[in-house]
Inverse folding.
């Protein structure tokens, strides 16, 4: 019911939200929870495990019960707290974990079966038969229990990710936080103030007290204006959820429309002013809709002008219960107080409120909402009618963020709660109710002190302290109230996970009484609310069961996040194509226009083949392209190979050190194949090195290792040879490089470059400067295909144009582009190692390149390349494999002697690469076979149990085509 | 995590690639060219494979790959995550 006056809502505007299809009126300033309560909606959810009817329990971020689904379709978001979600026009909400209806829920049968569903029930109940677990029990349990469901579709409004840097981050904008931010800003600090709520003021918004002579909310607005004038970044709707290393804080901002922004805030200092969270009391039936925290009931009355009930029992043992009763009475509603303290400890009851001293609540009635409350005192028990039971067991300082660096809070009996311990995250201080300073005056004072201390610590000049605004400073009268005698299996300590006092006792009896065990055995403190209301009460139940003090019972470890953060917020728009940027080769657009199919190669998109005419399968295209290079001329964009420009007086010495073979003896104008080892002696990478000048080299790497080789060379340059005068720069992206390969490649090249590229002018493994249509470039006479071949390089922006020019110039030669698949076929036919052979487990010897290890110089990997295991002559070595007959050969198959058992002991090696070879007219492969070099002509069986293939192969030289290399020298 | 780069000031750790224990800067002598002696192989085995795993200060290499490509030697307390010192590997290796 909405009260006729008061509240921080804009009554001039009314709009509708929908809950399970029903129209609910709301005003700006409402949360979903306040609008639902105003409309008399008490039943809003079903509980996680027992499917118990539940209502709104709190008025803030700690809400355990009132989780709803917001929005529809791909914009649906589950498990939204109704107490945090702002009402806005047209908002659609749906209750969760119920079928068919919230009021008639079939799953509520679970409540009847509650005796079977105690702590650890499914560890015990669903043990047999074992095979049933995955297929039957788990799906059944998952379906019956649980919270909301994800839409399963991509969010059309991805979260933004942003970063902010500041001197001082203030977390929480209650009286302490506002003062800390103000003092920091006045001292000239760059301040960020983050507040989870959409209004500033914290607890002041929920109380009817004045600060500096004006209502609390008004005072908070005044401070906000000053903060903004001082340049403070005031971030409302922003929950700081985690404290990370070196002053990094994670925060989730929700725009008014719900859209998320994930913030990384870097702060030199932080003041945690997160306030406190009220605790429930454990009594039988403490979970019905209509049972609420006393402070929450007061918040609905004062902030939202909503009567959460007409006839209230207010239960507690301290000022909070009394304040709530007074607020009810002031709103013209009925209230009685049940106070556990003896009458001698109490003053006179507030006007219009009946007081039962020495009285506790021992039970409740009402199936879908509270109807009656049972009061118990020395004089016996009585039932009283009530539709609201507002209970307060005391307040727990909100210490979570103070513990994110493994600090443990300590129990303070005077405060009646855990307070932050000494091990705070570096740079953080805590102020206000988060330390157990309960009065408004204390919060203002603590906050101001913390803000000034932060400014001093950062070396800012701090002026004279101003007098604090006048505020409430009454001593706190209360006695902690945890468990009512008799509380058992109907007394919930953790409402979200349906953990009762009986479950805690049972866990302790079954040996899970240590606090971390208790959590995992009962799920106490898990799920979206992380036990914000329930944890300390659960610990009290444990302490009582084990007979230890609260301090000795201790708490579980606190970890981020403080508040639920959707995984999609961490992902942001880094998904789909934006998940990882794709690099396109210089001829990409040209290739796409020529019906190229693209494949991911590292970060690159490379053309794998080009579909021509009526070619229907990839093999048609690849066979044609491979044959073309053997018979005429093909062109292939090889720009993706890594290119590193190495310069300096010590460049030659540097390359001698990095490569296993000699590079300093390379003449200017020549290229050389180079092999690089890791320091552990295995092969790292290969490529060609061209000497451009006496002190200038151009190194190429494989596409996949371009980054790793650059990193490795920088490590060597800076870390191992800091005194050498050599510099490195990546030139991969600067050059478009096109392989022109095939017997007619020279003819084609002569037509496009101005210079002499005859065999005499440009012999095999030479390079020279050329001009192509007036553009300066280079041509390298190197061959991966084994044919007469060149690689022609021009600045990257001419990549497409170069392809175009080569195609036009070579039309009569039959020129066509070829892709990476044909490239693979050609190099397998030639026995050239590539990624599948250079897999980090093979040595130079394994690859048949043992002679490349120089005996004239030191080089990286030399020592360990000579260790015992790497020089073992039994090691599998590179061989060619030719399928006998018609069988299919698969890469990854293992090699066995024919008839040998398929056991690890009989394993003689593996197949690394396979191809159908147009040149050979059959299936061929490269592989590693024990003592391979001695076994030419033998037959081995390639066994691929995954695909069910057993293929006999003849062991041959890996050089299937032109073993003497006559073609490439032609 | 933030690393105070000696040339560029505080930089986010995501700009760096971790390259391992800073003892990698102390590459042993491999001896004269050709096949090394057993003792040299033994030294390299220790260099390449044996690492201390301290609870406390640890010297390690961070490569500023998304930045100026400086190789840094960072001394980090593995218990508190405190960064105790940072220097250019060029200077540390000299």
């Amino acid at each position: 019911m909405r009260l006729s006056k008061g509240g921080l809502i804009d009554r001039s505007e009314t709009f509708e939200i929908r809950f399970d299809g029903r129209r609910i009126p709301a005003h700006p300033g409402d949360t979903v929870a306040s609008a639902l309560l105003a409309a008399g909606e008490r039943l809003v959810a079903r509980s996680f495990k027992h499917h118990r009817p539940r209502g709104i329990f709190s008025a803030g971020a700690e809400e355990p019960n009132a989780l709803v689904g917001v929005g529809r379709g791909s914009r649906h978001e589950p498990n939204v707290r109704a107490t945090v979600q702002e009402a806005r026009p047209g908002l659609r909400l749906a209750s969760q974990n119920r079928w068919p209806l919230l009021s008639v829920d079939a799953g509520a049968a679970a409540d009847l079966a509650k005796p079977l569903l105690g702590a650890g029930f499914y560890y015990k109940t669903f043990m047999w038969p074992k095979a049933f677990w995955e297929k039957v029990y788990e799906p059944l349990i998952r379906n019956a229990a649980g919270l909301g469901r994800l839409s399963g579709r991509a969010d059309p409004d991805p979260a933004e990710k942003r970063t902010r840097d500041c001197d001082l981050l203030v977390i929480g904008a209650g009286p302490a936080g506002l003062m800390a931010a103000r003092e920091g800003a006045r001292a000239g600090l760059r301040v960020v103030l983050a507040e989870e709520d959409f209004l500033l003021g914290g607890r002041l918004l929920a109380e009817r007290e004045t600060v500096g002579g004006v209502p609390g909310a008004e005072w908070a607005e005044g401070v906000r204006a000053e903060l903004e004038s001082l340049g403070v970044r005031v971030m409302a709707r922003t929950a700081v959820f985690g404290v990370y290393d070196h002053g990094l804080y994670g925060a989730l901002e929700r725009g008014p429309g719900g859209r998320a922004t994930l913030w990384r805030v870097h702060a030199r200092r932080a003041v945690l002013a997160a306030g406190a969270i009220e605790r429930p009391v454990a009594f039988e039936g403490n979970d019905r809709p209509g049972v609420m925290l006393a402070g929450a009931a007061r918040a609905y009355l004062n902030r939202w002008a909503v009567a959460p009930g007409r006839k209230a029992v207010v239960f507690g043992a301290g000022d909070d219960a009394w304040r709530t009763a007074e607020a009810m009475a002031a709103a013209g509603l009925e209230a009685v107080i049940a106070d556990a303290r003896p009458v001698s400890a109490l003053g006179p009851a507030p006007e219009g409120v009946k007081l039962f001293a020495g009285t506790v609540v021992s039970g409740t009635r009402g199936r879908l909402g509270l109807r009656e409350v049972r009061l118990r005192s020395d004089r016996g028990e009585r039932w009283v009618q009530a539709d609201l039971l507002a209970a307060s067991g005391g307040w727990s300082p909100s210490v979570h963020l103070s513990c994110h660096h493994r600090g443990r809070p300590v129990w303070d009996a005077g405060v009646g709660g855990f307070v932050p311990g000494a091990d705070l995250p570096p740079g953080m201080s805590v102020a206000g109710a988060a330390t157990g300073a309960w009065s408004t005056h204390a919060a203002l004072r603590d906050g101001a002190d913390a803000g000034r201390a932060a400014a001093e610590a950062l070396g800012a000049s701090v002026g004279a302290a101003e007098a604090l605004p006048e505020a409430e400073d009454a001593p706190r009268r209360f006695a902690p109230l945890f468990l009512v005698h008799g509380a058992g299996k109907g007394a919930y300590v953790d409402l979200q996970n349906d953990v009762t006092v009986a479950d805690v006792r049972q866990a302790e009896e079954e040996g899970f009484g240590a606090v971390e065990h208790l959590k995992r055995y009962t799920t106490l403190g898990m799920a979206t609310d992380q036990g914000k209301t329930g944890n300390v009460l659960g610990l009290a139940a444990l302490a009582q069961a084990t007979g230890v003090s609260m301090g000795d019972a201790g708490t579980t470890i606190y970890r981020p996040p403080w508040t639920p953060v959707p995984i999609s917020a961490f992902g942001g728009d880094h998904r789909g194509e934006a998940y990882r940027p794709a690099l396109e080769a210089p001829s990409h657009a040209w290739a796409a226009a020529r019906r190229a199919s693209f494949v991911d190669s590292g970060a690159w998109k490379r053309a794998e083949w080009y579909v021509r005419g009526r070619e229907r399968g990839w093999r048609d295209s690849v066979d044609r392209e491979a044959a073309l290079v053997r018979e005429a001329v093909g062109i292939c964009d090889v720009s993706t190979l890594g290119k590193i420009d190495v310069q300096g007086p010590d460049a030659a010495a540097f390359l001698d050190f990095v490569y296993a073979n000699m590079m300093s003896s390379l003449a200017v104008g020549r290229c050389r194949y180079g092999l690089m080892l890791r320091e552990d002696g295995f092969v790292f990478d290969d490529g060609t090195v061209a000497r451009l000048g006496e002190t200038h080299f151009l190194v190429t790497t494989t596409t996949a290792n371009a980054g790793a080789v650059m990193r490795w060379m920088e490590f060597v340059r800076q870390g191992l040879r800091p005194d050498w005068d050599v510099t490195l720069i990546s030139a991969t992206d600067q050059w478009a490089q096109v392989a022109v390969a095939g017997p007619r490649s020279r003819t084609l090249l002569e037509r496009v470059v101005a210079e002499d590229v005859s065999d005499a002018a440009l012999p095999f493994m030479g390079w020279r400067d050329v001009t192509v249509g007036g553009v300066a470039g280079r041509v390298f006479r190197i061959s991966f295909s084994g044919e007469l071949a060149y690689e022609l390089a021009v600045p990257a922006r001419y990549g497409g144009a170069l392809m175009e020019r080569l195609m036009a110039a070579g039309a009569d030669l039959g020129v066509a582009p070829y892709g990476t698949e044909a490239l693979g076929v050609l190099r397998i036919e030639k026995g050239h190692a590539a990624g599948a052979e250079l897999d980090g487990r093979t040595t130079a010897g394994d690859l048949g390149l043992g002679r490349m290890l120089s005996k004239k110089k030191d080089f990286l990997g030399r020592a360990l390349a000579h260790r015992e295991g790497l020089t073992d002559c039994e090691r599998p070595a590179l061989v060619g494999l030719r399928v006998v007959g018609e069988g299919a050969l698969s890469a990854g198959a293992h090699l066995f002697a024919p008839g040998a058992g398929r056991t690890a002991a009989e394993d003689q090696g593996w197949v690394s690469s396979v191809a159908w070879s147009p040149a050979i007219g059959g299936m061929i492969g490269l592989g590693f076979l024990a003592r391979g070099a001695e076994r030419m002509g033998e037959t081995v069986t390639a066994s691929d149990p995954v695909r069910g293939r057993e293929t006999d192969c003849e062991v041959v030289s890996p050089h299937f085509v032109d073993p003497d290399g006559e073609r490439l020298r032609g | 995590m933030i690393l105070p780069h000696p040339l560029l000031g505080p930089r986010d750790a995501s700009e760096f690639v971790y390259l391992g224990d800073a003892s990698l800067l102390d590459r042993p002598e491999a001896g004269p060219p050709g096949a090394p002696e057993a003792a040299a192989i033994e030294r390299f085995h220790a260099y390449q494979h044996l690492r201390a795993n301290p609870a406390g200060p640890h010297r390690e290499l961070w490569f500023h790959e998304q930045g100026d490509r400086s190789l840094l030697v960072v001394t980090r307390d593995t218990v508190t995550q405190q960064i105790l010192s940072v220097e250019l590997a060029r200077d540390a290796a000299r």
Q: What stands out?
A: The interface with chain A takes residues 1-2, 17, 19, 24-25, 27-28, 30, 33-36, 40-41, 43-45, 47-49, 61, 63, 65, 69-71, 81-83, 88-91, 93-94 of chain B (CB under 8 Å).
